[in-house]
Amino acid sequence: MNGAPNRRHAIVAVAAVVVALGLSVSVLLMPWFTFVAVPPSGAPQLTGLSATRAREVAEEVRYFVTHRDAPALPVAIDGQLGFDASSVSHLVDVRNVILAARWVTLLATIILGVVAAEGLSRGELRGVSGGLRTAGWTTGGLVLLLGAVGVSDFDTFFSAFHGVFFKAGTWTFPEDAMMIRVFPMPFWTTAAIAWASLTLLISAVLIAAGVVGKRVSKDLPVD
After folding, report:
1. Which residue from 115, 136, 143, 121 is spatially nearest to 16, judged by alpha carbons?
2. Deepest in the core among 4, 38, 60, 179, taking most CB within 10 A?
3. Hey, CA dihedral for 155, 145, 193, 162, is it positive or negative?
4. Inter-CA distances, 88 with 38, 64, 81, 166, Å
5. What is the pTM of this model?
6. DSSP assignment string, 45-68
7. Which residues, 6 or more positions from 12, have their beta carbon under 8 angstroms from its beta carbon?
8. What is the tens place of the pLDDT at every residue in 126-145?
9. Domains in the chain: boundaries
10. Number of Cβ within a 10 Å radius of residue 139
11. How far apart are the first and last CA of the chain?
12. In degrees rounded to 5, what are phi and psi of residue 24?
């Protein structure tokens, strides 16, 4: 008799975790984050560009990795070497990962909505609310675990993270590469902190929604 609620719980939990992770990344891929985070990262000093120009170059890259129809990146920027073939090749790989993640997140969102709506229509919120709570705690725990690893050795964590998605040798570049200077390590540290904070917030929302759902489910009539 508990098969349906248990299945609903598992589906909701997995889908909600995927949605939480995908949503937090998507927010940081919006123009505002690049605009805010690039100047204080030291990019203007490292590139010799003004803060405004550094933002413009960073925005070109952000748009390139989030849109398949984005224009080509400049080979030269204000008299400096811009983005060579190896840099562009890596950014195309990044774009492929991001676009695939978007589709996975969209699919998970649809599944989560359908399963939640089906449970609500049947007056069976126990599995949905339980799945949301599980997703919240799981996502929060994952963030804290990754945070502990990142704090202990961020460079190793950064390398391991890239190793999951990209082939060895395709994502390492000399320190004077424009891509490294526009997005130096302080930028990625800020991005990691922002991602962790946002994901923890989403985790808290999932847990709260699960708690509310649990209380509501107790008030629903049982057939």
Report:
1. 136
2. 38
3. positive
4. 20, 9, 13, 14
5. 0.86
6. HHHT--HHHHHHHHHHHHHHHH-T
7. 112, 115, 116, 127, 128, 130, 131, 132, 134, 135
8. 889 999 999 999 999 999 99
9. 3-218
10. 25
11. 12
12. -65, -40
CB-CB contact of 187 with 54 (8 Å): no
Report the C-alpha gap between 70 and 152 in whole angstroms: 37
Which residue type occupies 69?
D
**Cβ atoms of residues 120 and 128 within 8 Å:** yes
What's the Cα-to-Cα distance from 148 to each of 81, 137, 185, 221, rounded to whole Å?
Answer: 37, 16, 18, 44
Rounded to whole angstroms, how far apart are CA atoms 53 and 135? 41
pLDDT per residue over 160-217, tens digit each? 888 888 887 788 888 999 999 999 999 998 998 999 999 999 999 999 999 988 877 6
Contacts of 173 (CB under 8 A, 6+ apart): 86, 87, 90, 179, 180
Angle formed by the axes of helices 185-219 and 3-28, to 10°?
150
Three-class DSSP category at 67 = coil
Q: Is 221 exposed, middle or buried (0-12, 13-18, 19+ CB in 10 A)?
A: exposed
